Fold this protein.
Amino acid sequence: MAYNICFLFFLCITVSVIASELEVINGKIKITTVTTAGCIHTVNFIGEQLAPTYAIYGEYLDIHFVPWGRTQWHENGTITCQFLQNDCWANRLQRCVLNFLKDDQDAQMRYMNCEFTGTRPAFFHGSYVCAQREGLSLVDVDYCLKNPELDNLDRIAQEASVAPMDPDTGLNAVPAVVFNDVIDPVLYTQARNRLESLVCFALANITGTDVSFCPV
Ligand SMILES: *[C@@H]1O[C@H](CO)[C@@H](O)[C@H](O)[C@H]1NC(C)=O
Ligand SMILES: *[C@@H]1O[C@H](CO)[C@@H](O)[C@H](O)[C@H]1NC(C)=O
């Protein structure tokens, strides 16, 4: 894209802007979202951007949640979180539940929408209601939550959060949103403000979808 920019009516320069393009890879857009339970920006992103976009274009999306934003795992098995104990409790619960629902993306999206909207059951109330709504055994969920040393879910979440949260090369923001495993601050800003439109334009531009008439 080239723009002519003029100063003082006569002094003009031409600048090129390399616009970041959201790619559709093998018919899908991978969206990784790093969350933490106590974060209001995550509430807004999931409720106002991700869930509505998923409702329309879910079949073209490959969604990965990493409920580990600004969460630090320590060698002694403890973790520390941005919004303290409730945040840690809810993040650990969420990575357990997301793991139980790993073969059902619709259920994962419903579950995270449940946790981040309304009364925000896990974070504010220490409640398992969102897991219960997905039909999971609360005995199994509770066992997973209380025995983090018996699986490697903490480490997996910790590792998945490193690149998006890196202060120098990552987004270092919660929520962090990464498309197709490529960290791109321009696409990130668009995701936070107009995800539906961003996804729509990317899908409209490939053959094999009947997506058109995108909102700006
Ligand atoms: C675990 O390690 C962290 C970080 O080194 C430390 O702050 C914390 O006090 C330790 N907790 C226990 C129970 O040892
Ligand atoms: C649309 O596809 C063309 C050709 O593959 C590509 O050059 C262009 O960047 C794409 N535009 C968008 C918005 O993805």
